[in-house]
Amino acid sequence: xxxxxVVASYPEATSILGRxxxxxxxxxxxxxxIQTLFSAADAxxxxxxxxxxxxxxxxxxxxYTTEELNAYRPFAIVGPSPNLIISSQVVSSxxxxxxxxxxxxxxxxxxxxxxxxDDEDDQKDFAWIDLVDGIRQSNDTDEPGLLxxxxxxxxxxxxxxxxxxxxxxxxxxxxxxxxxxxxxxRIQWGRI
Length: 192
Hints:
Mean pLDDT: 86
Shape: globular
Oligomer: single chain
Low-confidence stretches: none
C-alpha cells in the first residue's frame, strides 16, 4: 500500500474564486483544533493533510481500499460549494461604483473513529462535535478557529459559517470505507 503524499502540490490560482479557496485552505491550517486533529506541529504541517477538491486519485483508477482511506485520515478537503459558488454585485457609494463579491466553500473533515480508551461511543461522538465546532469557532484568539481568523491579515472575510452535517460513517459501509467520523462545514465569504 502506498502512503498518502507528504506534501500536497497545487498550481497557484489566478481567479478570485481559486485564490479564495486556497486562502480558506491556508486559514484552516492555522486553526488550533485542526492542528490538534492532525497531530501537526504547525500550520505548514497541517496544510499537508488539507486537500483541494478531493483526495489524490489512486494511480490505477480503482476505488480506494479501506487501508488507503485510513492512511489518509484524518484529512480535510476544501472546495466550492455545490450551491452558491461565487457571485458579484454592483455597489454604489456616493458616485463611485464597484463590485462586491461573495462565495461559498465547503470543508469536509474526516477522521478514523477513535479506538481504545474508556470512553463510550457516544462520548467519542460528542468529543467529535466539540472538535469540529472548535475548528469553526474556538472563542479563543490564542488558539483560533476559522471565525477568530476572520478578517485578520491575509484571511477571508467570513459572512457566515455553518456545520451542515456531523456524523459517523454508516455501519453497512465499514468494510468498504472503514469506521470514521465526518463533518461538513460551509463557509460563506465576501464583503458588501
